[in-house]
Structures are given as structure tokens and as C-alpha cells.
Write a structure and sequence with these properties.
The complex is a heterodimer of chains A (about 290) and B (about 210). Chain A is an alpha/beta fold and about 290 residues long. Chain A has nine helices and seven strands; from the N terminus they run αβαββαββαβαβαααα. Chain A has a domain of about 180 residues: Rossmann fold. Chain A starts with about 25 loop residues before the first helix and ends in a 10-residue tail after the last helix. Chain B is elongated, with a radius of gyration of 24 Å. The C terminus of chain B is likely disordered. Classes of the chains: A alpha/beta (about 290), B mainly alpha (about 210).
């Protein structure tokens, strides 16, 4: 009995009878191998594309990289003047507009938890009005001469600046709520009390040990104040002005702040290319019936 | 090959050669800066512009190729340690800040540096900081234990680290002369001394 190669076993499909079918065995094996390799590559790429797509995270703003929210720590000490209020208002407004979950800590020479982590971003909206001018007073110089609404912390919460107190409160909130990969965003003019600097450096060390990401929105600090934080945290911790502007206009653009998924696009394109190659190189022969 | 293509290839090769030459200068510059600034540091550790290189190519390519970020981090930690004036009787608030900054940078070395020699040296310095703090802190027992642990870690990372061995022996002597009170707790001691550590050395009074 004739032993047929595996791929040349007679099937019930309509076929062209060939007398020298066995002579094509090598070609059949090569085609099968190419098909197998292409199928494996397509399956692997499809799986990779799926995983890449699943891993995409598009946070409502770019302040908290994980998209899971974080804590905003805001300096309300007496060195924060109306010029700095504008930036605070802009940042708080972007949280409120995008409804990004966040906690809120205010500090001067003590820290105070105003909102726990995970609070809806729009809960910050009532605070924004305290940082926006309601009219002009006597002087008309830029940045001054504006009237601001009486805020609840004016009487008791406008002392010197001890940044470590605000950061400590935020770190304890993160530990208390079991938040992993937490992000804390500090808004301050960095005019820290020199007596607090050792504690501040220690606190930053504790942040790093706990894996908490610390970002800084500088409120127009003096060069010497900025310098200490630069040395301790590095320039990459500072939120750039462009990022602030981008986040501030999110509502107008109605978009999410996410980086372009280049890897996903490349994987998708490669997948399409492989599928096209598969069709081109290994498709079965087909022809039309003869017209009678 | 047509003349146009040849000219184009020659231009590409010329640009590539120029870029490589600049890269070579950058790499050489990084090495030179670090050597020179190591000497400047000996003379003036207060200089804040140490180990800062100027790159001719964008993106600090030369620095990235050499991977000097960890070297700079370690040097920064040592600089802060030196500026902290740990031996001074009365220390300024700036010196306390430098001490905390030193702890921060030296902890980063432990977390991010892959070089065992630098991690060992950093652990030794952290042990010294804890030891000095123990002298004035209310939590002296805890800080002594921490410095013991740092010195042991330093010896584990680099068994040739003679300074860490000396420091470990010193701390063990101090700990033996000042046994922890009941309310301070205990722990540590000889029991968890690594067998491959300083205890294996032939000299000294043994730890």
C-alpha cells in the first residue's frame, strides 16, 4: 500500500488529480512551516496587542500618573499672595472640571486633612472661589488690588511655612487608607522655614522608602527656595508650566490626558501586516469557474 | 551608483562622523569633569556646582552612555555627609539639613545603585549618621541597632570595607557598655551577625 505523506493524504475536497503528487512533498512541507510560523506570530502579536490595549491608562489629568488619584497638599501660609492664588485656582479647577478623585491637605505651620483620598474632584469646586478675585480694591497694580472672598482659614491657618507638616499628613493618609503607588502633589512657594528643612529632607526620604511619588507645583518660588527642592527631589519632580496649561484646558478640549499609545499602534500595524502577508503568501489557490 | 547618491552618502557619513566626534568629546569631558571635581571637592565641599558636565550633544548622550547618574548620586551623598559636620559639638540648622539630605541620597544609593562597593560605602556612612544621632536622641537604643544593621550590611556588601568593620566593632563595644534597658527592647546583638562578616576576621576583639 502506498504511504502518503501526511499533508498529501487524499481528502474529500475537490482536487486536481496529479500523477506526481509526491514530488510536491517538499513544497507542501515548506508551505506548512510558513503557515505555522505566521500563525504563531499572528497569535503572539494579537495577544501582545490585547495586553497593550488592556494596560492603557488614561487619567483625567496628567498630575497623577496612575490615574487612580492622589493627594493635593496646598500651602496656605502667609507668604502665599494673590499672584499665587491664580495658579492654585487653576490647578484646583482642573481637578474639579475633570472630576479626578483626590484628597486635599492644607498646611501652614501645621497640616490639616480637609478631604480624604478618593474624594470626587468636583468637591474641590467650592474651594476654588476662595482663590479667585471678586473685584478690585483701591490699588490697580498687576497682581495686587484684587479683593478675595473671606476664606475659612484666614484667621487660624496663616502662619509660617513648614512643608514637612503637610507632607507628613498626606503620607499618613496614604498609609491609613492602604493606597499603593500613591502620588502627592505639593503646591507651595517653597519658602520653607529653615528650621523645617531637616524635617523636610527626612520626610522626602520617608516618601521614597514608602514608594510615594512626590510632585511639586511651584508657586513662583524665589531661586534660593527652589534650589533646595531641586537638590532634594531633582528637576523631574517639578510640574512644568506647559503641563499646568494643558491640564487647565482639559475641559475645553474634552479630552483625556494620556500619552500617544505608540507601542499599541505599532503592534496593531504589525498585526495587520502579518495578516496581509499571510493572505498573500499562503492562501489556497482559487479560480473562477469557466464561463459556459 | 550615481554621483548624486554618492554625494548624499558622503554627506550622511560626514554628519555621522561629526556627531561621533562630538560624542567622543562629551564622553571625554564627563571623565575629565569628574576627575577634576573630585579634587575640587577635597578642597571645597561646599561648592554646589560639582560634577556638573556640559554636553555638546542634546540629551546628555555622553553621560547616559557612561551611566554616571549613580556615581554623581553617591558623590552627592558623600558631599552632604561631609557638609553635615557630624563631629561638631554644636551644629547649625543647615548642617542638620545636610545630614538629612545625606541620608536621603545615601538611601537612594542603596535602592538604585548596582555597584556593591558604593552601596557598602553608603551603608557605612548611614551607620555613622545613626551612631552620631544615637548620642543625642531619646531613641538611642533603636538608633544603635540601626547603625549596627547598616555596618553589617556594609560588610556583607563589601567584606574588604575596613572602615565598616572598625565601626561595627566600635558600636558593639558601645552597645556592650550600655546594655538596652527593659523598656527599650533588645534584639540584634551577636545572634544575627552574618558569618561572613567582620566576625570572621582574625584581628579585633570579636563581634
Amino acid at each position: 500500500m502506498t504511504a502518503w505523506p501526511e499533508r498529501l493524504r487524499p481528502s474529500r475536497r475537490p482536487r486536481i488529480p496529479l500523477a506526481d503528487a509526491r514530488g510536491l512533498a517538499g513544497v507542501v512541507r515548506r508551505t506548512s512551516l510558513v503557515r505555522l510560523l505566521l500563525a504563531a506570530a499572528i497569535a503572539a502579536l494579537a495577544l501582545g496587542t490585547f495586553l497593550l490595549a488592556r494596560g492603557l491608562q488614561a487619567p483625567p489629568s496628567s498630575y497623577f500618573a496612575s490615574g487612580a488619584g492622589g493627594i493635593v497638599v496646598t500651602d496656605l501660609s502667609s507668604s502665599i499672595d494673590p499672584n499665587k492664588y491664580r495658579r492654585i485656582a487653576r490647578v484646583l479647577k482642573s481637578f474639579a472640571d475633570t472630576n479626578q478623585p483626590t484628597g486635599f491637605v492644607a498646611f501652614s505651620d501645621t497640616g490639616y486633612e480637609m478631604m480624604p483620598p478618593g474624594t470626587r474632584g468636583d468637591e474641590l469646586a467650592p474651594l476654588v472661589k476662595f482663590f479667585e478675585p471678586v473685584g478690585r480694591s483701591g490699588s490697580h497694580r498687576f497682581g495686587t488690588g484684587f479683593r478675595y472672598p473671606q476664606n475659612p482659614w484666614a484667621g487660624s491657618f496663616r502662619g509660617g511655612t513648614r512643608i514637612s507638616t503637610g507632607l507628613t499628613v498626606a503620607r499618613r493618609m496614604i498609609a491609613r487608607d492602604g493606597i499603593t503607588n500613591g502620588t502627592v502633589m505639593l503646591m507651595s512657594d517653597l519658602d520653607n522655614s529653615p528650621f523645617d528643612n531637616p524635617r523636610l529632607a527626612k520626610e522626602i526620604n520617608l516618601y521614597e522608602k514608602a514608594g510615594i511619588d512626590l510632585r511639586v507645583v511651584p508657586l513662583f518660588p524665589a531661586p534660593e527656595d527652589r534650589s533646595l527642592m531641586y537638590k532634594l527631589l531633582g528637576p523631574e519632580a517639578f510640574v512644568a508650566n506647559r503641563e499646568l496649561l494643558n491640564n487647565a484646558t482639559l475641559r475645553e478640549r474634552r479630552t483625556l490626558a494620556g500619552s500617544f499609545p505608540a507601542a499599541l499602534v505599532l503592534a496593531g500595524a504589525a498585526l495587520l501586516l502579518l495578516l496581509a502577508l499571510n493572505e498573500k503568501a499562503t492562501a489556497r489557490l482559487a479560480w473562477r469557474r469557466a464561463v459556459a | 551608483m550615481s554621483t548624486g547618491v554618492r554625494v548624499l552618502l558622503a554627506l550622511v557619513a560626514l554628519v555621522l562622523a561629526g556627531t561621533l566626534a562630538l560624542l567622543a568629546l562629551d564622553v571625554h569631558g564627563v571623565d575629565e569633569t569628574f576627575r577634576a571635581d573630585d579634587l575640587r571637592f577635597q578642597r571645597n565641599p561646599g561648592d554646589s556646582a560639582l560634577w556638573v558636565t556640559e554636553s555638546r550633544l542634546p540629551g546628555d548622550l555622553g553621560e547616559k552612555m557612561l551611566g554616571v547618574a549613580d556615581d554623581r548620586q553617591f558623590r552627592s551623598g558623600v558631599r552632604f555627609f561631609r557638609l553635615s559636620g557630624l563631629r561638631s559639638q554644636s551644629r547649625s540648622i543647615d548642617q542638620s539639613t545636610f545630614q538629612q539630605a545625606a541620608e536621603l541620597e545615601l538611601s537612594r544609593v542603596d535602592r538604585t545603585d548596582s555597584n556593591a562597593w558604593r552601596r557598602s560605602a553608603a551603608a557605612n556612612l548611614r551607620g555613622v549618621i545613626n551612631l552620631v544621632e544615637a548620642a543625642t536622641s531619646d531613641e538611642s537604643g533603636q538608633l544603635l541597632q540601626r547603625s549596627l544593621s547598616e555596618f553589617r550590611n556594609a560588610i556583607r556588601l563589601n567584606p574588604e570595607n575596613a572602615e565598616a568593620k572598625y565601626n561595627l566593632e566600635l558600636v558593639l563595644q558601645i552597645a556592650a557598655e550600655n546594655p538596652p534597658s527593659d523598656d527599650e527592647g533588645g534584639g540584634g546583638g551577636r545572634g544575627d551577625t552574618p558569618a561572613s562578616g567582620a566576625g570572621a576576621a582574625s584581628s579585633g576583639s570579636g563581634y
